[in-house]
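Bench notes, afternoon.
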Amino acid sequence: MIINQGVQKMSNSIKQMEEIPMVVDQPDLYRKNIQALVHKYDICSLEDSFNLNLSHTKIIIIDIHTHSECIELIKTARNQNHSISILILVDYQKVSDYKLLQSIPGSGQVRIFKKYPSIYEDINRMVNSILTPEYPSMHSHVAIIVPIYNEESRILNVYHFAKKLKNYLLKANYFSSIHFIDDGSHDKTKELVTSMILKEKGSSNRVHSKRFMDILSLEKNSRKAGTFIKGVEEVRANYYVFVDGDNSFDISDIIRVINICQQGYYDIVQASKDGASNDRKMIRRIMSYVKRQLIRPFMPEKIADCQTGLRCMNALSVELIFPHVNHLFGLASDLQLLYLAKQLKFRVLQVPVKLYDQEGSHVHVIKDSINYLKTLITLSFKGRIKK
């Protein structure tokens, strides 16, 4: 089913879209069940759906049994509208295909719902949970934690990243907030980012029940670890995204990591630059390969990369892992997080992403690699959770 723009009230709390075409395998079944609830559904088959103009459509809901046809319809929709949200209905007893989420292009939300006998009565609730993020049923708050440190010389990277991220989150109707964590900068990073936040807040036409964009500060530099701890201590959310703020990731990859984690099968979704990095210097490729071999004993099953600065964690994993995180591990805090996840038996998925190395990185390849080796030794002796 395709749901177009134009919201009108159905009751005190439920909102419904005008002119709602639906793309389903069994049009007659939906006509019988949906028409009793809402009189403005325009139900159509898969064949008719490819003639629809989706360029201004907010959400598409799909109930197509054939996997290949479902993928074809999704790609057609995203080709017309890169940020269109997608709600997929699947049979209750069918094993959810989470690899499907990795193959969907674009930057809009993607949700998979199981069909059950009363599914028709809950369609409005599902739609509102996507189109109206503040709607009190079925929404999840996503907090974006962005560490920053001495970024004055490359503040434009932070500006561009923040603006793109904000626009994508608002366009895709995420109930979300962005939190910059200043890691004890010695330059004008805090002042510049604060000014940017005030400007970006003023350009948003949405009223947020949570602080949408803010900055928190550490007094001393923690080499990243302290920013993670500060973020989860200060912000309450259902999902936490930890991402570098230097504009080194495509926003569509960040959205994809969120979509997969929100589906609920994995507790942590870890991005990986393996096989997907662009324009990386040879020495960084070599050092990354060596590190991956050394950290293998500490990693959860099928996870080979902890160094890519993008991951999404659900609230439970954050709640149970972070009390054990030690800020003294610095840049190796990413490794420590996944080592703790392994010990606590959380489900972790690795997802390939594109990575763009930015000039002015605070990572010193040789020096930090030596410190990293020292950290591995410390982690092997002191990194286990005491029972």
